[in-house]
Amino acid sequence: EALIEALQAQKDSDLDIRGVFDDRSDERSAPMIAGKPKLGTVDDLVEFARRTRIDLLLVSLPISAEARVLQMLRKLWVLPVDLRLAAHMSRLRFRPRAYSYIGNVPVLDVFDRPIADWDIVIKAIFDRVLGMLMLIAFAPLMALVALAVKLDSRGPVFFKQKRHGFNNQLIEVFKFRTMRVHHPAPGELVQARPGDTRLTPIGGFLRSASLDELPQLLNVLNGSMSLVGPRPHANGTRAANVLFEEAVAEYAARHRVKPGLTGWAQVNGWRGETDTLEKIQRRVEHDLFYIEHWSLRFDIKILFMTAAEVLRRRNAW
């Protein structure tokens, strides 16, 4: 209540407080706090932040409650938002430079959105401009591939699949169809592997040459993907019969940025079938490294490395 009142007392503030989330029971936590509604628990907050345009999360707990703060941060750090620990009531006093401020309210910076402010604009322009140029350059090749897919086997030219994108939102990813039309059982998803009998005659070549991924330039142009970022995985994919999100605790943090046509994991050899836990763990490690070290120069470097990796055809089938 003191924090909300202090924030609302700021002059010329553009802060819009949407609500409060509290793990305490209703007997210990009022339904309205300083005029703001209680919207649920911290677990509800994760889903709320994925459905609502939230820029900033303020954790209002005493710094001395170390275990509780850490427990909460483990749940919240996977979200693409700024995360701050309110220090307005703390008796611990650090040097002024240790704090950042929302108006006059001191906060401790915990996590920042990995790509924010003008960096979002720069990356979006880079993706759209270069993506359009690439689409124009590859249009004749894509037309030939589309014709070959149509003549090779019965079924559509494009394969469309729902996958998780930025902030865990579902997006529809485009690829050239490389497998015969089949209908797997619900919840059954088997990755392509060497000698896969589901592949069409031309499908194996398209996959090994990475030509099946070219339609994802359309995803880049519609804003659901970037040229560079963590690769979007099909929902329900498993490593050693364990769901990706269960195999790696940090898996959801990959969605703090848009998925990419290529990524740091792919150019370092961690692409293709993830039949062991180590493979998905290493892929996630590389994805998180990319997110924490993003720069436009890094994106350009990965694109050049991708061209070399495509020619090598390492782990591509």
Based on the model shown, name its key terms.
alpha/beta, 3-stranded mixed β-sheet, 10 helices
Q: What does this 3D model show about the protein?
A:
With 317 residues, the protein is α/β, with parallel strands linked by helices. The chain is built from ten helices and 13 strands. The chain has helices at residues 2-8, 42-51, 66-76, 118-152, 203-208, 216-221, 244-247, 264-267, 277-292, 296-312, and strands spanning 20-21, 32-33, 36-40, 56-59, 82-86, 100-102, 105-111, 158-164, 170-176, 226-228, 238-239, 242-243, 260-262. A hairpin with a 2-residue loop joins strand 2 (32-33) and strand 3.
Shape: elongated
> Measured on Cα atoms, how large is the radius of gyration?
23 Å
Structural class, judged by helices and strands?
A: alpha/beta
> Which percent bin holds the helix content?
25-40%
Task: Round the mean pLDDT to the nearest integer and report it.
Answer: 87
Detail the topology: elements first, then pairings:
Layout: H1 2-8, E1 20-21, E2 32-33, E3 36-40, H2 42-51, E4 56-59, H3 66-76, E5 82-86, E6 100-102, E7 105-111, H4 118-152, E8 158-164, E9 170-176, H5 203-208, H6 216-221, E10 226-228, E11 238-239, E12 242-243, H7 244-247, E13 260-262, H8 264-267, H9 277-292, H10 296-312
Parallel strand pairs: 1-3, 4-5, 10-13
Antiparallel strand pairs: 2-3, 5-7, 6-7, 8-9, 11-12
